[in-house]
């Protein structure tokens, strides 16, 4: 896998959107549109090889050099701090990292704040910057349920429309950081496939501007 | 002593050729103990790649650590007198980012302590480039200057915290991140423009240096660019100069490093394999008056390079049993050992992959 540009795409709707952007930039690969269970697709004439991976794994594939470039959410980049270049904000997959709590919640600063989250580092950094003592409960899904059952006081999670929060009588009490999809590159690959990657970045940037 | 280099691993062969390279330029071998007083590392935690250190209490009650770093020990054990050029080949003990557990990491490197001028920095850059060339001709040595990036960032803001955020984005080539930091902190786009231009300045030293001089002139730090240019002059006539690139996303801790810093990459290895720079600030923190520059080559990153599996464990397997004539066995083994590797065994079910099999059991002959 040397001369081709290896691209890790996040599985799902976001990945399909990203592929469309890459296709418009001249990196088409028709076989990716076939309805099958294959994970790797290549178009030697365009010099590109795509593979679908779990969205949270894209940064690992890129950091370890299995992929030259990839698209990952800013939430993953903030949480895992991979050693990569973050070349472009693709301005898609937009949402926000926020603190949410049961409606009418009031923070009692005399007590340690209990926080449920999938994003322990982001939560820890956020509250450390405010000097607030917290107890993190790391969960892998259904975070919204934690304050309802009294497991924690608040949650730190990604909020898109806020509909799930609303249905569970939770509300955003604080925004931490806006999130969107970012084009990332392996640091070594960038040195040796510099022209190709820079050209792609420029094409994507031009598409954004137009 | 005659050594057949086929018995050496890639890392061993590389280590020998690097020793030869460093010795040729007058660098002396430096050996040190595996242990060091923990206090040395606790006082300079930020300098370490990982701040976790393996510690234990010595018989006398002193807290010792398995060395997580070589540079700090070299500075500690060398006084300010004269200029010392040293190279080392040591194992260090650090937490590996991937596994989150301690790993023994072989590391080789070069340190020059004392009178450090542009020539010495250039020599260090040259040795770094030559070290990379020993590994593969397909390498890149990225060079930057912390003095230059520092000057560009400091003119944007006085806040150390905001500067750190900007440096983090700079190391990720994240220009949109810098723009957003500026928006949040009320820094005008005009103030950010020189740094954003510096970030796009990326390419061979020969091509980018004139543009760098222009940018530095507009920011009032031409002196730093000239220093960098002076150091790079040592490499100018060499073929490998085309592999030396200016890239200002190379960042090191500003509390320890200053001036020229660099990182080396090999095509096919996903992360930098070499890292170095000038560390006068660290010397000062350790109460030394002299200056210093050096680099380390991380041999663990090269684990998958060089050694190729030819599909065989041994050249010849010789099978024998109690009925085999001892003289025939001894003679056959001696002959086979002359021509390659040989494994002598009674175990006919051995799983060794061999180029040839010589069965001396009973009266069976092949």
Order of helices and strands of chain B: HEEHEEHEEHEHHHHEHHEEEHEEHEE
The residue-averaged pLDDT of chain A reads 93
What string, H for helix and E for strand, traces the elements of chain A in order?
EHEEHEHEEEHEHEHEEHH
Shape of chain A: elongated
Q: Write down the Rg of chain B.
A: 26 Å
CATH topology category name of the largest domain in chain B: BirA Bifunctional Protein, domain 2
Number of strands of chain B: 15
Kindly report the oligomeric state of this protein.
Answer: heterodimer
**First-last Cα distance of chain A:** 33 Å
Which two chains touch over the largest interface?
A-B, 19 and 20 residues
Mean pLDDT of chain B: 90
CATH superfamily of the largest domain in chain B: Bira Bifunctional Protein, Domain 2
What low-confidence regions of chain B span 5 or more consecutive residues with pLDDT below 50?
none
- CATH architectural category of the largest domain in chain B: 2-Layer Sandwich
| Helical residue percent band of chain B | 25-40%
- Domain count of chain A: the total is 2
CATH H level, superfamily name of the largest domain in chain A: Periplasmic binding protein-like II
Shape of chain B: elongated
Q: Please identify the structural class of chain A as seen in this structure.
A: alpha/beta
Could you tell me the CATH topology label of the largest domain in chain A.
D-Maltodextrin-Binding Protein, domain 2
Commentary on this structure:
The complex is a heterodimer of chains A (210) and B (366). Chain A is an alpha/beta fold and 210 residues long. Chain A folds into two domains: 5-93 and 180-209, D-Maltodextrin-Binding Protein, domain 2 (3-Layer(aba) Sandwich), CATH 3.40.190.10; 95-178, D-Maltodextrin-Binding Protein, domain 2 (3-Layer(aba) Sandwich), CATH 3.40.190.10. Helix content of chain A is 32%, strand content 32%. Chain A contains eight helices and eleven strands. Chain A has helices at 13-24, 58-63, 74-80, 120-130, 145-148, 163-167, 187-192, 194-209; strands at 5-10, 40-43, 48-53, 69-73, 84-89, 95-102, 113-117, 134-138, 154-159, 170-179, 181-186. In chain A, the strands form two sheets. Chain A has a six-stranded mixed sheet. In chain A, strands 8-7-9-6-10 form a five-stranded mixed sheet. Chain A is elongated. Chain B has 366 residues and is an alpha/beta fold. Chain B folds into two domains: 5-302, Bira Bifunctional Protein, Domain 2 (BirA Bifunctional Protein, domain 2, 2-Layer Sandwich); 314-359. Chain B has twelve helices and 15 strands. Chain B has a nine-stranded mixed sheet. In chain B, helix 4 (118-135) packs across helix 10 (222-232), helix 6 packs antiparallel against helix 7 (175-185) and helix 9 packs antiparallel against helix 10. The radius of gyration of chain B is 26 Å and the shape is elongated. In chain B, 36% of the residues are buried. The mean pLDDT of chain B is 90. The interface between A and B is medium-sized, with 19 and 20 residues.
């Amino acid at each position: 896998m040397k001369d081709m540009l290896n691209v890790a795409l996040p599985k799902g709707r976001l990945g399909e959107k990203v592929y469309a952007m890459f296709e418009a930039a001249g990196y088409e690969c028709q076989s990716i549109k076939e309805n099958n269970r294959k994970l790797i697709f290549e178009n030697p004439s365009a010099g590109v090889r795509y593979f679908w991976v779990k969205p949270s794994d894209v940064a690992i594939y890129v950091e370890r050099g299995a992929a030259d470039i990839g698209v990952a959410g800013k939430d993953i980049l903030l949480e895992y701090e991979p050693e990569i270049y973050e070349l472009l904000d693709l301005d898609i997959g937009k949402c926000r990292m926020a603190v949410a709590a049961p409606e009418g919640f009031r923070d009692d600063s005399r007590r340690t704040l209990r926080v449920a989250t999938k994003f322990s580092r982001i939560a820890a950094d956020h509250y450390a910057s405010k000097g607030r003592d917290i107890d993190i409960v790391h969960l892998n899904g259904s975070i919204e349920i934690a304050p309802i059952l009294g497991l924690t006081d608040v949650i730190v999670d990604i909020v898109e429309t806020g509909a799930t929060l609303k249905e569970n009588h939770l509300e955003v009490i604080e925004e931490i950081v806006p999130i969107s999809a970012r084009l990332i590159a392996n640091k070594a690959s960038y040195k040796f496939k510099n022209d190709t990657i820079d050209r792609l970045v420029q094409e994507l940037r031009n598409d954004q501007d137009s | 002593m005659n050594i057949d280099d086929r018995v050496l691993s890639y890392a061993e062969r590389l280590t020998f050729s690097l020793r030869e390279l460093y010795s040729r330029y007058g660098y002396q071998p430096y050996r040190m103990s595996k242990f060091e007083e923990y206090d040395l590392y606790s006082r300079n935690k930020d300098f370490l790649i990982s701040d976790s250190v393996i510690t234990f209490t010595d018989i006398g009650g002193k807290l010792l650590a398995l060395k997580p770093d070589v540079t700090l020990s070299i500075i500690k054990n060398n006084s300010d007198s004269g200029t010392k050029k040293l190279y080392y080949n040591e194992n260090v003990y650090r937490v590996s980012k991937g596994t989150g557990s301690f790993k023994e990491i072989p590391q080789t490197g070069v340190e020059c302590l004392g009178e450090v001028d542009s020539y010495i920095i250039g020599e260090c850059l040259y040795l770094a480039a030559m070290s990379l060339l020993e590994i593969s001709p397909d390498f890149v040595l990225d060079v930057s200057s912390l003095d230059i990036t520092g000057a560009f960032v400091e003119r944007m803001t006085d806040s150390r915290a905001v500067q750190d955020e900007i440096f983090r984005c700079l190391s990720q080539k994240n220009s949109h991140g810098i723009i957003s930091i500026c928006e949040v902190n009320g820094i005008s786009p005009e103030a950010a423009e020189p740094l954003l231009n510096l970030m796009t300045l990326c390419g061979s030293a020969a091509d980018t240096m004139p543009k760098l001089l222009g940018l530095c002139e507009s920011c009032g730090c031409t002196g730093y660019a000239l220093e960098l240019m002076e150091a790079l002059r040592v490499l100018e006539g060499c073929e490998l100069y085309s592999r030396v690139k200016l890239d200002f996303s190379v960042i090191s801790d500003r509390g320890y490093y200053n001036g020229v810093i660099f990182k080396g990459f090999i095509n096919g290895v996903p992360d930098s394999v070499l890292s170095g720079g000038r560390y006068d600030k660290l010397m000062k923190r350790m109460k030394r008056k002299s200056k210093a520059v050096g680099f380390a080559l991380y041999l663990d990153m090269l684990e998958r390079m060089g050694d190729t599996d030819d599909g065989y464990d041994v050249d010849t397997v010789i099978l024998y049993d109690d009925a085999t004539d001892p003289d025939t066995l001894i003679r056959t083994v001696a002959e086979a050992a002359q021509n390659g590797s040989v494994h002598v065994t009674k175990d006919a079910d051995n799983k060794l992959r061999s180029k040839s099999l010589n069965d001396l059991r009973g009266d069976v002959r092949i």
